[in-house]
Design goal:
This protein is an alpha+beta fold. The chain is built from 4 helices and 6 strands. Helix 1 packs antiparallel against helix 3, helix 1 packs parallel to helix 4 and helix 3 packs antiparallel against helix 4.
Length: about 190
Amino acid sequence: MSDDFMLDTDDLERRMDGAIASLRTEFASLRTGRGSASMLEPVMVDAYGAMTPINQVGTVNVPEPRMVTVNVWDKGLVSKVEKAIRESGLGINPQTNGTIIMLPIPELNEERRRELTKVAGQYAEGARVSIRNVRRDGMDQIKKAKADGISEDDQKFWESEVQTLTDKMIAAVDAALENKQTEIMQV
């Protein structure tokens, strides 16, 4: 009946890659004792009556490993940017010098490093769940096609393809987690 069934593995892979990209973004926001511009990405500033990402009100730079600077373009927003950074929960105390806000990155203690590795693990588990949900969607499409009449050999083939893709993506998540945990624990 429906022997020409083709599972869109490219779509499944794209959706799984999206979960990994999201994980990398979450990892970038974790502070590791070294400065990075991406650690300020989740910070939103109340600018011109709207919540605006910090990189749209100033230039974020990393002049040295333990310092991040924000050069605010509008002098009137300096105090709002400083307040947003203070209230962001990053644990950084901003220092203002004209329109430049300097963020010295404090050294992480052992306890805080362990907490951050647990948070990284939770982010990774969320990505694994997303990947498994995509896998389930693919398997559901295969079951539906089985009901429509594809052969058992085709069903097994597509199931193994989806499982292989899932295993590859889960391995990528595990590798990213291991790298991030090593980076966090590095003194």
